[in-house]
Every structure is written in structure tokens, then in C-alpha cells.
Design goal:
The complex is a heterodimer of chains A (117) and B (111). With 117 residues, chain A is mainly beta. Chain A is built from no helices and 11 strands. In chain A, the strands form 2 sheets. In chain A, strands 2, 4, 5, 6, 9, 10 and 11 form a 7-stranded mixed sheet that branches. A 4-stranded antiparallel sheet of chain A has the order 1-3-8-7, with no helix packed on it. In chain A, a hairpin with a 5-residue loop joins β4 and β5. Chain B has 111 residues and is mainly β. In chain B, the strands form 2 sheets. In chain B, strands 2, 4, 5, 6, 9, 10 and 11 form a 7-stranded mixed sheet that branches. In chain B, a hairpin with a 6-residue loop joins β4 and β5.
């Protein structure tokens, strides 16, 4: 069974930092590109960041560029998102997604990040 | 940036009746490799999104055949042949031809 399990979310003050993690199982993690996608409360989906299978190609949405860093450890079947200089508008559920055939084939359950004083 | 526009934003449907959702992109989604990376996702209440359709018309594993996708270029459609109660939720189109963008979502509800 395919599983993506996110962790690391929580309440943080504006300007603070958080590191999200995503642990994969049930598929060959090292063969898949991965993404983070977020969803603000009651809102739609927003792509955040992409990393290919070998960490060679990395992209960010303009809204997080310079503040967020995506990385992965294929030996640990894990994906990460380091989030710095957090703002209120970063409040959202963050989903880890596996990417193949030009789409998000697998999704985690998400982890909630709340940025508030 | 490519803008994805879905219509309608809300769709009340009678059980057993068909439903249709449209998605229009601000520019062609045909990739240089010849593929069109247009997908449809379903998000049931309180659940993460899940993949229904990829590359316009390919149903993902386990997706019932009452779901179908069609279209080309900039205009795409998701159809549900006979709506069931479990189909309630929000449907998103998504393009991955030019980075990744999502439509605003269409809420499917039962009349």
C-alpha cells in the first residue's frame, strides 16, 4: 500500500521557521519526482515546490522563493521542506505528493502549518 | 503564468444524473514532448485530493469508469455519467505543462 506521511506542522510566530518531513512507503521513492502542495483554510490548491528524483532540478512558486527549501533523502525515503521567514499567508495544510506521468499520482494526508502571533 | 478557469464553480446534481465540469487554460497545454499534461483531481470533504484523470483522458488506477475526461489544447471537460453520493466534493483541474497550476475548484453537491 502506498503511503505518504507528513509531519512537522504546528503553530509558529510570524518570522519563525518550521521543517516539514514526508516519509514514503509502498513505492520506489527514488524513482519519483516529488512536490509540496498547500491549501489555505477553505481555499483551493497551490503548488509550492518541486524536486526531481536525483535532486538535480528544483523549482519554487514565486510566493515562497528565497524562504523555502525543498530537499530529499532517497536512502531514507524522505522529502523535506524547510520553511523560513514564515508569514500569516503561509498558513495552510501542506501536502506531500509524488509526481509521475505529468501529474500528482500519490498524496499524503497533509500537515497543518499555522502562522500566528 | 498559466491561469486555469473552471466552470461552474458550484454544481448541484441529482443522484443518477450526469455532471460536467469545464476547465479552460490561458494558453495551450500541449508540451514540447507532444503530451498534454492536464489532470483532474477529486477532494472529498475532510480528505486530501486524489487523482482521477491524467493526460486529459486516462483514468487512474481504481477510478470508476463513470468518470471520463476529454478535450484538447486549452479546453477540457470532466464528465460523470451517473453521479453517486460518494462523488460529493471539490473537483480541480491541474496543468503540469508549464510548471504547475490548479483551477479554482468546482464544488459538486447533491440536490
Amino acid at each position: 500500500e502506498v503511503q505518504l506521511v507528513e509531519s512537522g506542522g504546528g503553530l509558529v510566530q510570524p518570522g519563525g521557521s518550521l521543517r516539514l518531513s514526508c516519509t514514503a512507503s509502498g513505492f520506489i521513492f527514488s524513482s519519483y519526482s516529488m512536490n509540496w502542495v498547500r491549501q489555505a483554510p477553505g481555499k483551493g490548491l497551490e503548488w509550492v515546490s518541486y524536486i526531481d528524483s536525483s535532486s538535480t532540478s528544483i523549482y519554487y512558486a514565486d510566493s515562497v522563493k528565497g524562504r523555502f527549501t525543498i530537499s530529499r533523502d532517497n536512502a531514507k525515503n524522505s522529502l523535506y521542506l524547510q520553511m523560513n521567514s514564515l508569514r500569516a499567508e503561509d498558513t495552510a495544510v501542506y501536502y506531500c505528493t509524488a509526481f509521475a506521468s505529468g501529474t500528482y499520482v500519490y498524496w499524503g494526508q497533509g500537515t497543518l502549518v499555522t502562522v500566528s502571533s | 503564468d498559466i491561469v486555469m478557469t473552471q466552470t461552474p464553480l458550484s454544481s448541484p446534481v441529482t443522484l443518477g444524473q450526469p455532471a460536467s465540469i469545464s476547465c479552460r487554460s490561458s494558453q495551450s497545454l500541449v508540451h514540447s514532448d507532444g503530451n498534454t499534461y492536464l489532470s483532474w483531481l477529486q477532494q472529498r470533504p475532510g480528505q486530501p485530493p486524489r487523482l482521477l484523470i491524467y493526460k486529459i483522458s486516462n483514468r487512474f488506477s481504481g477510478v470508476p469508469d463513470r468518470f471520463s475526461g476529454s478535450g484538447a489544447g486549452t479546453d477540457f471537460t470532466l464528465k460523470i455519467s451517473k453521479v453517486e453520493a460518494e462523488d460529493v466534493g471539490v473537483y480541480y483541474c491541474m496543468q503540469a505543462t508549464h510548471f504547475h497550476t490548479f483551477g479554482q475548484g468546482t464544488k459538486l453537491e447533491i440536490k
